[in-house]
Design goal:
CATH class of the largest domain: Alpha Beta
CATH topology of the largest domain: pyruvate-formate lyase- activating enzyme
Oligomer: single chain
Strand order of the largest sheet: 2-1-3-4-5
Number of strands: 20
Number of helices: 13
CATH superfamily of the largest domain: tm_1862 like domain
Shape: globular
Strand content: 15-25%
Number of domains: 3
Distance between the termini: 47 Å
């Protein structure tokens, strides 16, 4: 069959869908880029927040609309199907098969026989192969689900408790990806610091990955603040391949709101931890995220976020407007914050952080960075330094007197800067 696939949501979904592609290709099927060429359309959905649910539903209906003059089957799987399986079957009968959070094998089987499945989530799997995509990076899922009790989050109810993949399977997958030419391995899980398997921890995994032959980067995403301890920092500091990039979502800076979120309310402890990391790893880059508009959030709570940003000066910041998800504890909390107020605070945080980004980018002028080359735009090469994760952070645009190979590393000197991006030339 000719299979068209669309992936919505987080990098864990991207990793899952790439494994599905590898299985299908191994069974003799063809992955096509154009929906018009497909016998089967497979949509991997997200249902984390309202915007993600809307995006997933809109995509399903776009594919259904496209099919009016074509003949192909539609399969929908992932978080949206897991969360609303029964309702979707009734409300969108045009879909040929719904599957919840299932293993890649089940998705591949559904492509062949259009079987449906709904039951306990299957968020992890063994090493089932990967494809040779045209990106120089690859996401590797080390676990999924979550044991945390954050009051705003629906993930535990969708994917269940934290389940970690087999240690050896992860190493096999990383080795395979490096041999196929990947220059950046990005480890993802709902809580990467919670990884453990057979007595092995995230630190053991990182140490073994560090010893895999080859010139490649290792990037960590989704580090729960409490799990970033001195042992992990020391491992990163001594590593040859682990990037000095700390993705630590803090969600808020008001101790009152953090308590309501069931997050660690000790903001001073977090500030001290970041200071320690910067002292041990001076070029450490910090990414974080905030939620604005959480129930009962007031102006004083919001000001604490701005003060925290001013004190810590994160390098990368993402902001989400609170999504009132049914089934979560926060859904029952009052009073709700008006959307217009939450949007105004969202914009306030982004404006505040933009000034910090400008000053940080200004400090990079004249410095040289190792860059992973990803493409060409408007006659300039485009790549990323260790400071930028794909799809969520900035980029560096640069020129070169000689041809630069895609998917390889280049040394680039920074010449100028913008709000989020840098500009330079190959040294």
């Amino acid at each position: 069959m000719k299979v068209w696939m669309d992936v919505l949501g987080c990098p864990k979904n991207e990793a899952d869908s790439d494994v599905v592609k590898a299985i299908l290709m191994g069974r003799g099927h063809e992955i096509v880029d154009d929906l018009e060429d497909a016998n089967v359309a497979v949509i991997n959905t997200c249902a984390f927040v309202s915007d993600a649910k809307k995006e997933s539903i809109d995509e399903i209906f776009d594919v259904i609309k496209f099919r009016k003059n074509k003949s192909f089957k539609i399969i929908v799987h992932g978080c949206l199907a897991q969360r609303y399986f029964k309702a979707l079957k009734v409300q969108i009968p045009e879909v040929d098969a719904f599957l919840g959070v299932v293993s890649p094998q089940r998705v591949a089987d559904a492509v062949e026989n259009f079987s449906e499945f709904y039951g306990s989530p299957e968020p992890v799997y063994g090493f089932l192969g990967r494809t040779s995509t045209d990106t120089p990076y690859a996401y590797v899922k080390i676990g999924d689900g979550c044991d945390r009790k954050c009051t705003f989050c629906a993930i535990p109810s969708i994917k269940g408790p934290l389940k970690n993949r087999d240690y050896e399977d992860i190493l096999k997958e990383v080795e395979f990806l490096v041999k196929t030419g990947k220059k950046e391995i990005i480890l993802v899980s709902q809580d990467s610091t919670g990884y453990a398997d057979g007595g092995k921890t995230l630190i053991d995994l990182l140490l073994d990955m560090d010893n895999i032959p080859g010139d490649f980067w290792i990037r960590l995403l989704y580090l729960y603040p409490d799990g970033v301890n001195e042992a992990l920092v020391e491992t990163i500091a001594k590593s040859r391949k682990i990037l000095h990039y700390f993705d630590i979502p803090v969600q808020h800076a008001s101790e009152r709101i953090l308590k309501m979120m069931k997050r660690n309310p000790d903001v001073k402890l977090l500030e001290d931890k970041i200071s320690y990391i910067r002292e041990r790893i001076p070029d450490a880059i910090f990414r974080t995220s905030f939620i604005t508009g959480f129930p009962s959030e007031n102006d004083e709570d919001f000001e604490k976020i701005l003060n925290f940003l001013g004190d810590v000066k994160f390098d990368r910041v993402g902001v989400f407007i609170y999504s009132d998800e049914e089934g979560t504890v926060a859904h029952g909390l009052l009073p709700k914050v008006k959307k217009t107020v939450a949007q105004s605070r969202f914009e306030g945080i982004m404006d505040f952080q933009r000034e910090i980004n400008i000053q940080k980018n200004k400090s990079f002028v004249g410095k040289q960075f190792k860059v992973i080359v990803e493409g060409i735009e408007d006659g300039m090469y485009v790549g990323r330094t260790y400071m930028d994760a794909p799809e969520i952070d900035g980029a560096i645009h640069f020129s070169s007197a000689n041809k630069v190979e895609m998917g390889e590393f280049a040394n680039v000197a920074v010449k100028s800067y913008e709000f989020y991006d840098l500009e330079g030339e190959v040294v």
